[in-house]
Amino acid sequence: MKKLITLLLLFAFVITPTLFFKDVPTEAAGNIMYVNAKDDIILREKPSQNAKKLGSIKNYSAVTVLSSSKGWSYVQTSKTKGYVYTSALSSKKPTPTINGGLIPKVGLKLTYSPSILSTKKEEFIVNKDLYCTYLVNISNNDADFCYTEKQSRLSMGVSATDWSFFHFTYPMKQGQYIKDMYFDVDDASGLMVEQYNKVLVESMTKKVKVKAGTFENVVILRYQSGERYYFAKGIGLIKATDKKGKTVTELSSVKNDKLTTTDAVKLIKKYTGLANDSDVIFEYDHKNDEQHYIIHVYRFVGEPGYEHTATFGWYGVNPHTGEIYDAFMENRL
Questions:
Q1: How far apart are CA 138 and CA 282, in angstroms?
Q2: pLDDT tens digits, 12-31
Q3: What's the rounded Cα separation, in Å, for the pair 219 and 230?
Q4: What angle do CA 117, 118, 124 make, to 5 degrees?
Q5: Measuring CA to CA, which residue among 115, 154, 156, 119 is closest to residue 137?
Q6: Which candidate in 145, 188, 219, 227 could, as Cys together with 135 as Cys, close a disulfide (CB 3.0–4.6 Å)?
Q7: Measured distance between the N- and C-terminal CA atoms of the chain, rounded to whole angstroms
Q8: What pLDDT, in 10s, does the model give residues 27-71?
Q9: What is the DSSP code (8-state) at residue 82?
Q10: CA-CA distance, 171 to 153, in Å (whole number)?
Q11: Could you tell me the domains of the chain?
Q12: pTM for this prediction
């Protein structure tokens, strides 16, 4: 009789385990999975979005899943253990992909040496309007540059000209080819038509060291000629090499500090186009209620002893974004 009861209990245990172990996490010891999210993910101490952050795990990297339950997975990285959202993991190794974000953030101060169109060192302030994200050259009166990310393309060229460096197509997937679009004359018709070069997305996961520091998950694009562009998310171009591997452009400094009044004056000089006029004076005057810099642009006119100021304009500069505006406009974009 005792044997029969024992057998019945064992049978019940086998067919109805949830009666004995309710809400026990599903074990997946040693199961290798991959982070497949829009960006790096947060590793937490407990399975809660409010739990203490232990660090982050790089997108596309491998983790060992120790258990999973109620939308959370307990994982082990090379350094520590913690919890992540199960939805951020994939059993298949993902192909690194990017759909944008390779232009610099507004307000940055970027220095290149050698620069983009010069072998010299040049400093730029990043600002933007409805059309472009600009690299405004504050080192001299040389060219400014314009980034755009529109219509699934990443483009860059010289501001206020039709001179462009590239028009790369999105999405970019590691190991696959994208197009660099351009217009050229069609031999048959004699008309300008859209054409393209094939460009390999060589890597999207490497660390690249330049003068400005080391950047992770750098997007490396290689032309069939051997020329390469290197991009960092939120920074833009950090390096360019020619077909022999020689560095022709390199980022040497990145600063995210508030602009100084001197920076603001330099921006206004480029904005007005009067930098080379020796009679024009650019002068920081005060801060407005928004704590933006107000720059007065003027010159002295009249006979000696009877001179007075002739004002070209009063301009506001946002020290956090580099935005420029007419200081006396009641409304601005």
A1: 14
A2: 444 444 433 333 344 445 79
A3: 6
A4: 75
A5: 115
A6: 145
A7: 88
A8: 445 799 999 998 899 999 999 999 999 999 989 999 999 999 999
A9: E
A10: 8
A11: 2-94 (2.30.30.40), 109-255 (no CATH), 261-326 (3.10.450.170)
A12: 0.79
Q: What is the pLDDT of residues 191-238, one digit of tens each?
A: 888 889 999 999 999 999 999 999 999 999 999 999 999 999 999 999
Q: Which residue has the tokens 């090379």?
A: 78
221-238: b or e for each residue (b if 16 or more CB lie within 10 Å)? bbeeeebbbbbbbebbbb
- Per-residue pLDDT at 244: 96
Q: Which helix (H) or strand (E) holds 7?
A: helix 2-15
Chain position carrying tokens 């998950």: 217
Tokens (6 digits) for 259: 């602009």
- Give dist(CA 28, CA 75) in Å, integer: 10
Extract long-range pairs of 110-115: CB within 8 Å, 24+ residues apart: 110/135, 110/235, 110/236, 110/251, 110/253, 110/254, 110/255, 111/212, 111/251, 111/252, 111/253, 111/254, 112/249, 112/250, 112/251, 112/252, 113/211, 113/250, 113/252, 114/247, 114/248, 114/249, 114/250, 115/249
